[in-house]
Amino acid sequence: xxxxxxxNPLSSSTFLYTILALLAxxxxxxxxxxxxxxxxxTKTDYLLGTxxxxxxxxxxxxxxxLANAAFKEIERIDEKYGNNKGIVEELNASKGxxxxxxxxxxxxxxxxxxxxxxxxxxxxxxxxxxxxxWGFDDINNEKRVPxxxxxxxxxxxxxYENVEISPDGNKVRLxxxxxxxxxxxxxxYAVDMAIMKIKSIDEKATGxxxxxxxxxxxxxxxxxxxxxxxxxxxxxxxxxxxxxxVYMYDGSIATSGDYERFFEVDGxxxxxxxDPATGYPANNxxxxxxxxxxxxxxxxxxxxxxxxxxDSPGVTFFPRYGALAFLVREDLSTFKNKGFEVYLxx
Amino acid sequence: xxxxxLLIAIMLLIxxxxxxxxxxxEVYVQGKAYMKxxxxxxxxxxxxxxxxxxxxxxxxxxxESDCPEKLCVKQGWISSPEVxxxxxxxxxxxxxxGKLSDEAMDAMTR
Lengths: 346, 110
Known about the structure:
The complex is a heterodimer. By secondary structure, chain A is of the alpha+beta class.
């Protein structure tokens, strides 16, 4: 029988410690690798007249680089389509003359016209004269209730059909004194384009972009879990109270509500979402409308339209256009398009 | 054995510490860190002479603001990190950190 040598490297205690050390190293390495993959980088900035957050994780690219690329794209769109600058300013000052536009602008205008058509004019990006009249065109402007005659006069200019795009798509003109405001769809468009930018750099990147409540999903959380998005409760003392949760792996969601921007005169609340038919804040029984769509631009546009249409059959046609609506009525009862419920559970 | 004990001790420490981490709100003005606010203390604070902020029962709100539309005041109370209080004209941002009150939520559409 061999005597056990205490110096033998295979002695039981050394062996045990070696195994333990290896185990600890492998656990730490594993933690490091998985942690690295699950790292989300969050960047925020004031753009598009709101507060924008990008939360992103790359598969093979640094999340910081991805977030910076996204913000660069959002800045570009903010510069190009913001109010009182760029093409919007040029068009609004054009007095009906043909103005040359690039492909991107043509796409944006055509998208806006399409939503206007699909919603029977409930969404209308020529509401600018009305918005200006009420003082909602600038955060610093004084808000007021205009006279009926003023509203009637401004309404004559409001109609999306006043925006004429030449057949070749290279020119546009505004008829009958129409003026446009692309802020309603540029925000969502910027989210869509920023996501495309991120995906073009790193196809398997995940995360989301939140531009003032217009949220577009880059990819599922940690690659396989849904992002949990709360829909704001429209009547709450708390800004973070939720009326329902949706679980999203992809696509976009946007909400319009009468609580976002408003002023009160003699106890009456005048909010910022106008009915193109009346020129007054839309008042058709709905206080908050949320829409899920593949595109953040269209989610936002259809959410606005749903708010204006209100509790009417119009919204039941939304799924035809790839939009699923969730409406909250004045009594806090809700309406959901068929298909919306699949987003309400994990 | 020492290693295992150490690991367990660290894990216990992390899990034990988490719920007791003090809750704070970070205030940014013009994109720069301005101050931290302890949410366990009921108090009011003056932010850059633009906003009065009130803390009550772990919640925080903009009580007064000199901005034209007062959207930050209309926002009301917040108590979760996912939804910040934002004043666009003064570029003031109040964000809760250090606690995930509602771990279920990642973002909010509004």
